[in-house]
Amino acid sequence: MGKQSSLFDNSSQNIPEKAKREIERLVKDLTHHCYLYHVLDSPEIPDAEYDKLYRRLKELEEEFNYILPDSPTQRVGAPPLEKFIKVKHTEPMLSLGNAFSHDEVREFEKRIKKFLKSDDPITYTVEPKYDGFAIELSYIKGILEKASTRGDGYVGEDVTQNIRTINAVPLKIEGVNVPDEIDIRGEIYMNIKDFEKLNRERKRSNEPAFANPRNAAAGSVRQLDPSVMAKRKFHLACYGLGALKGKSFKSHWEFIEWLKEAQFPTPLNIELKDNIEGVINVIKE
């Protein structure tokens, strides 16, 4: 088999139009079914049918040497890296602050109003905090170009090959007004049952167990061989915005709604509250 091409290679001009259209349709259909299964947990077709479509796409890509950058076949199969490349964040990727009591939450609002020099009511978006591994997804013209760790908040590491193996991560932004460039922040995490299963497997292999799901996520994301990450079941919850070009959002809530429309997984139980006491009531629940 010759050198693999992409959507941007001139070699695509030699492909029969019928085969080109079928490849593009299969990529679109498989991406849709992947979103239904891994993000919405609401599959429309059985696994066997998905596998059949996937095999057909793989056959066509190999036959015509034409691979789209968002093809699901490109999630796995990259060779191991010798080391991770450092990546500078366009906008600092800082950690979140903590509050340990309801009074501290009220003090937070006081500081915000003092900073804004206004006593007007503040509307809050309330969402759960995931105990996972922070990640930034960088898209250019809708295509996933890079995934990077937080690092020290200013410089992280390029872990794109590993993050592409997570089926919930969109390789291409679909169906919405796509920004020229956008950095989306989120959390890579593992469910408890999958974490316990992974530790049982590690014990059977005489490997040390991970202390908690966050350690499992951090240890997996920083594996030089992406096949290790691909064998483990991770999820993604997107909640933050970094650099942005070619679009604007009036509020965090509008950004979250855009994420949903763009088929990104978002935190569960997101609520909009028009005052700090509403926020505290959600915390109490």
Give a quick rundown of the structure:
The protein has 285 residues and is an alpha+beta fold.
Task: Please describe what this structure looks like.
With 285 residues, the chain is α+β, with helices and mostly antiparallel strands. It has two domains: 10-74, Helix hairpin bin (Helix Hairpins, Orthogonal Bundle), CATH 1.10.287; 133-284, 2-Layer Sandwich (D-amino Acid Aminotransferase, Chain A, domain 1). It is 37% helix and 16% strand. The strands form three sheets. Strands 4-3-6-7 form a four-stranded antiparallel β-sheet. Strands 1-5 form a two-stranded antiparallel sheet. Strands 2-8 form a two-stranded antiparallel sheet. A hairpin with a 2-residue loop joins β3 and β4. α1 (17-38) packs antiparallel against α2 (47-64). The radius of gyration is 21 Å and the shape is globular. It starts with 16 loop residues before the first helix and ends with a helix. The model is unreliable at 1-10 (pLDDT under 50).
Measured by DSSP, the beta-strand proportion falls in: 15-25%
CATH 2nd-level architecture of the largest domain: 2-Layer Sandwich
Give the helix level as a range of percent: 25-40%
User: Mind summarizing the main beta sheet?
Assistant: 4 strands, antiparallel
Structural class, from secondary structure content?
Answer: alpha+beta
The residue-averaged pLDDT reads: 89
The radius of gyration computed from the alpha-carbon positions, rounded to a whole number of angstroms, is: 21 Å
Count of DSSP helices?
9
**Number of separate strands:** 8
Query: Spans with pLDDT under 50 lasting ≥5 residues?
Result: 1-10
| CATH overall fold name of the largest domain | D-amino Acid Aminotransferase, Chain A, domain 1
User: What general outline do the C-alpha atoms trace?
Assistant: globular
